[in-house]
Amino acid sequence: MVEFLDVHSVSVRIYYPNTEHMLSYGLYPSEEESRESHIPLEGSVPREEVKTRRTYLVPNILEEARYQDKTIIETKGAYSLMAIPLEITQFFTNERDTVGVI
């Protein structure tokens, strides 16, 4: 995905409705030690994407009010963001659909 989209980094966050948190999976480059594994849905960038299932594009994160911590952006030198919702339909009737954001 990183090569195809020609991006600096990618992460996948899966939403857990029971805890109202997003769990981080598949970070590139791998920074598991320095990134929070769970983030609350409320107040996060992927919040609307999880709820609406619509892609969100930000040309300049420094001008985006929803993106709170801008220090990491300046450190990485990546100033744009693309949040793409994902949804995997339940395999069994007693399971829930899997929803998240790339």
Task: State the gist of this model.
This protein has helices spanning 2-5, 47-52, 71-76; strands spanning 10-16, 21-28, 38-40, 56-58, 81-83, 85-88, 98-101. The chain is an alpha+beta fold and 102 residues long.
Number of helices: 3
SS class: alpha+beta
Q: Helix amount, in percent?
A: 10-25%
- The average pLDDT score comes to 79
Domain unit count: 1
- The first-level CATH class name: Alpha Beta
Shape descriptor reads globular
- Count of DSSP E strands? 7
CATH architecture: 2-Layer Sandwich
Named CATH topology: Beta-Lactamase
Q: Which stretches are poorly predicted, pLDDT < 50 over at least 5 residues?
A: none
Topology as H/E string? HEEEHEHEEE
CATH superfamily: GAF domain
Strand order of the largest sheet: 3-2-1-7-6
Report on this model:
With 102 residues, the chain is of the alpha+beta class. It has a single domain (2-101), classed as GAF domain (Beta-Lactamase, 2-Layer Sandwich). Helices cover 16% and strands 31% of the residues. The protein has helices spanning 2-5, 47-52, 71-76; strands at residues 10-16, 21-28, 38-40, 56-58, 81-83, 85-88, 98-101. A hairpin with a 4-residue loop joins strand 1 and strand 2 (21-28).
Labels describing this entry:
Beta-Lactamase; alpha+beta; single chain; two-stranded antiparallel sheet; 7 strands; five-stranded antiparallel β-sheet; 102 residues
Secondary structure layout plus pairing:
Layout: H1 2-5, E1 10-16, E2 21-28, E3 38-40, H2 47-52, E4 56-58, H3 71-76, E5 81-83, E6 85-88, E7 98-101
Antiparallel strand pairs: 1-2, 1-7, 2-3, 4-5, 6-7
